[in-house]
């Protein structure tokens, strides 16, 4: 009987030992899993934190191009007035070149001599006004379309009748004609002028007066 009890005790001890080994193995496996779990959680937290720090950085960069675009727009606006000024200058040159081509040197010389004869003793503005009347007639449908044609039209200007058209023009008359022709700077839009003290034609006196310069009146 003692041998049987001893054998049973040994068997029970072996079974207990085997169970203890299984429990230790399970505890070891659980410990490994628990040890891994914080690492995984920590990595997840780091990824999340990186994600959050990336968002502000992206926002800051997103606003930078707007500042640059504003600066560029300001520079473009600042440069526009210069462009307009340049265009205006080019337009003035084109107008001057066109007028120089339209009227020959001979026509300008003839017009200068007429201004000298008609406006002798008058102011510089008075000389410009006489030259303006001739050019206004050239562009008017009721008169010849050339300077020579207007000046030599029958009974149009007294200096043609009395021969004073052939006298050499003074410097003020030449200068006044150049300014009116080349710069298109006309003093009046009138197509007639006369001296009211000596004019004998009642028809010319019936025209509407638009300017009075010196001894002359200018009419349309």
Main sheet record: 3 strands, antiparallel
Sheet with most strands: strand arrangement: 1-3-2
Radius of gyration: 54 Å
Q: In the CATH hierarchy, what is the class of the domain at 102-189?
A: Mainly Alpha
Number of strands: 3
Can you name the CATH architecture of the domain at 102-189?
Orthogonal Bundle
Low-confidence stretches: 38-68, 70-78, 84-89
H and E order: HHHHHHEHEE
Structural class: mainly alpha
Query: How far do the termini sit from each other?
Result: 159 Å
Tally of DSSP helical segments: 7
| Fraction of helical residues | over 70%
CATH topology of the domain at 102-189: Arc Repressor Mutant, subunit A
Shape: rod-shaped
- Give the CATH superfamily of the domain at 102-189: Cell wall hydrolase SleB, domain 1
Mean pLDDT equals 76
Tell me the fraction of residues in β-strands, as a range: 5-15%
Task: Briefly say what this structure is.
The protein is mainly alpha-helical and 220 residues long.
Explain what this protein looks like in three dimensions.
- This protein is mainly alpha-helical.
- It has a domain at 102-189: Orthogonal Bundle (Arc Repressor Mutant, subunit A).
- It is built from seven helices and three strands; from the N terminus they run H-H-H-H-H-H-E-H-E-E.
- It has helices spanning 2-102, 105-118, 124-138, 147-151, 158-162, 171-182, 202-205, and strands spanning 192-194, 209-213, 216-219.
- Strands 1-3-2 form a three-stranded antiparallel sheet, with helices on one face.
- The longest helix is centred in the N-terminal third of the chain and has 101 residues, at 2-102.
- The termini are far apart.
- Residues 121-219 form the Cell wall hydrolase SleB domain.
- This is Cell wall hydrolase.
